[in-house]
Amino acid sequence: MQRTLLWVLLGIGCISLSSARLIGSLVVTTETPQEDTKNAAPTIATSPQIYQMRVDTNVSNRYAVTLVTSKVRNIGDAAQEATFSVVTPDQAFISGFTMEIDGKKYKAYVQEKEEARETYDRAVESGFAAAHVAASARDSNRFTVSVNIQPASKATFYLTYEELLVRKDEKYEIVLNIHPGEPVKDLLVQVNIDESRPLKFVKTPSLRSGNELLKNNPNLDPEAEITNLNETSAVVRFNPDIAKQRILAESLGGKEKNGLSGQFIVQYDVARDPEGGEVLVSGGHFVHFFSPENLTPLKKQVIFVLDTSGSMSGVRITQLKEAMDSILDELKPEDVFSIVEFNSLVKVWDVSTIRVSYMEGEDPYIYSDRDTTTPATQVLPPSFPATESNIINAKEVVKQLDANGGTDIQSALKIGLNIETSNAIKIHQPIIVFLTDGEPTVGESNTERIVSSITALNTLKVPIFSLSFGDGADREFLKKLSLKNQGFSRHIYEAADAYIQLQDFYKQISSPLLSNVTFRYTDQASNVTKSNFPILFGGGELFTTGILRDDSDPSIVPPAVEAWGVNGPIQLQPKVFQVSGNLERLWAYLTVRQLLEQREVAEDKTGPTQEALRLALKYSFVTDVSSLVVVKPNDTATVDTVDAAESFSPSFKHRTAFAAFSPMRNFRPAIVPTAAVSYSSHFGFPILFSQPARDFLRPAASPIQPSSLHTFIPDQHSVFTTSPPSLSKIPWLGTVRNTNGTITVGSDAYSLDYDPSVTPYSCQNSLNKANGTCLQLMNCEQIYPQLTDFDTFKKYFCKLDTAAGVCCPDSPFP
């Protein structure tokens, strides 16, 4: 049986802590009548070759837009299957995908999830190979598309994603995954940072494997070129040749022949207002970044609720002990803490005597070497001061933790909350750090009831930070538990560096600066995202965004940012800055994230679901309620089928295709597995977006009639036209180009063709807001590296009669 195949999959892969894992796939096959190929000449399989890969990221106001471009050619004498795979940051929204095959552009578009499924079914029934991609994100997204490439032909793939950078440990990080699967002759990563505030530093640490957290390694120094253009702007370029890629591949533990496979990291921070933060205003929208400096941290009460059930035995309990040994050293003398361990029993340790002083529960398991006798006098001990002697004793307690028994989660959390409410010292900010590697097996086992009872009991709204350890933990349950209790959840990957992951997590919450933080705005601000936060941690940042009725009205400044500090209530005044850049998508992203969080915990999900869907469709976000649809006319080459259960390698693969042709007959759609989406808490969000991708190329394919297409995809039109040679260096240009060779800016269309009659003139919107000269786009190649997407181009756009121009910088650009 001969088959034509277009398949798309989106699986889970780890960005920073674990190796990639496949979670879901979509396979579409078409069948043609079997033909005799016994006498066919044998073909020689030659893998398609990647001859160019570019990763271009533009950062403006902490908002990053990344375009990944990969170009591949089939140098063999038979059709081959080429696979394009990209790992995106864990909070990124995919918003644009285009394939160029045989000189034609095919754009994906976003639909409501169920509608996308119906579109897919109708496309298959009508004789089209199709696929729709639903976001599947727990830790990271892997976006993969495979298509056939004819002999001596080329294909180009463009993927756009966007993210709001989240400040952690006093810095922002741009994490770019590079996995071409082979050495690439032309490999370039360029990051353009154009901030509204002065840059404090820009640096590129050692490359990471993406599987484990490692310290800086001189052998993995990317030797990137960092150019500071002015106090607010910088350009970072990573352009390793073949030899350098092979050296780095080997240093990362891979094989030279597989090329570079790791993460290129750019870190930076900005100077900020030391008090009320900065309100950035542009185009009728605003964003308020708040990260005050020079504040004395709050005293804290940390209640460690630690799973010591039987499944924690071996490496897990060892890593937990190693992490706790380090975490205890991080406690400050003015802090207080408690250690609660739980399995079938719940035990509260008296740190001063290194003995269990309180225990609840019955152990259904029998262990001859265990003492499960309830103390004669049950007294729930208060939290203990983090003195030197108590820290030493606490480390002895940790050494005695033993993994056995079942998992009584509800009782453990109730006792943890009771410790907080019974604590005689009320000047500390309480925090519960809850770690488990499994599901509840003792006591209450219904996770919905556990969430409801703990939330009801938590009348003081103590933040609960949940850590899921390994694959056995119910991560959805832990996420919901934390969302409803002022905290957030994190996953700890079962790897050699698990103890480092635990330490890094604790560092993020180890220094609370303010509690009950509230942003207040006047009536000039509307559609404001979440504006009340339980805690601001040192090294981090809070942010909110909204729409202005008048972006020049100074009354948008809130009377104060109100919070509770170490000395009581405080009020801080922000500063307002008019900036360039598109804040609308940032607002849309945060609004969608917030709606999806509300949907996560709401009893009635209708309202937040409908509003999240409306915005997702408007801004082309692939989310939990929307999907990406890819439709492509069937080829006539045949390929092997792909087993979705096979282990996946993020590289270009090939399948030998035989030269057999016949009309299309029957079609068989595959079943689409569902996959869930997770979103970070209100303490920080990363993101992805792009221009709405509704236009879609669909060349006619006999015997399908145009009238039958209108029921499931937009009207037929061509996206691709021939570009001047220099314009081919702008990869996204073909995706916005009209059929007559123009592009539309605002309500007018402008030509990209050379026009000798136009007259250049001075302009003031060039790079870094400098003066320049308005030239036709093809005559200003030096600005091309900055034009990573259409929105960025419009910042520098100028019109030359009916021709598209750009404000070209007068001074040379590195």
Topology:
Elements lengths: L1 E11 L12 E8 L16 E12 L2 E11 L6 E9 L4 E9 L2 E4 L1 E4 H13 L2 E7 L6 E9 L4 E11 L7 E7 L7 E9 L4 E5 L21 E6 L2 E6 L3 H10 L10 E9 L7 E5 L2 E6 L9 E8 L7 H16 L5 E7 L3 E5 L4 E6 L23 E2 L2 H13 L8 H14 L6 E8 L10 H11 L6 E6 L5 H9 L5 E4 L5 H12 L2 E8 L5 E2 L5 E6 L4 E7 L12 E5 L2 E5 L2 E4 L5 H18 L4 H14 L6 E8 L32 E4 L36 H4 L23 H4 L5 E4 L2 E4 L9 E3 L8 E5 L13 H7 E4 L2 E7 L5
Helix pairs in contact: 3-4, 3-8, 5-6, 9-10
What would you say this structure looks like, in words?
This protein is an alpha+beta fold and 814 residues long. It is 18% helix and 33% strand. It has 13 helices and 42 strands. The strands form nine sheets. Strands 7-6-11-4-3-13-16-15 form an eight-stranded mixed β-sheet, with no helix packed on it. The two termini are 56 Å apart.
| Global mean pLDDT | 77
**Radius of gyration, CA atoms, in whole angstroms:** 28 Å
Indicate the structural class: alpha+beta
User: How helix-rich are the residues, as a percent range?
Assistant: 10-25%
Q: In total, how many beta strands? A: 42
Q: Strand-residue fraction?
A: 25-35%
Calculate the terminal CA-CA distance, rounded to whole Å: 56 Å
Q: How many helices in DSSP terms? A: 13
Domain VIT: 34-163
Protein name: Inter-alpha-trypsin inhibitor heavy chain H4-like
Domain VWFA: 301-509
Pfam families: VIT, VWA, VWA_3
Keywords:
single chain, signal, disordered N terminus, alpha+beta, eight-stranded mixed β-sheet, VIT, Inter-alpha-trypsin inhibitor heavy chain H4-like, ITIH, 814 residues, 13 helices, 42 strands, VWF_A
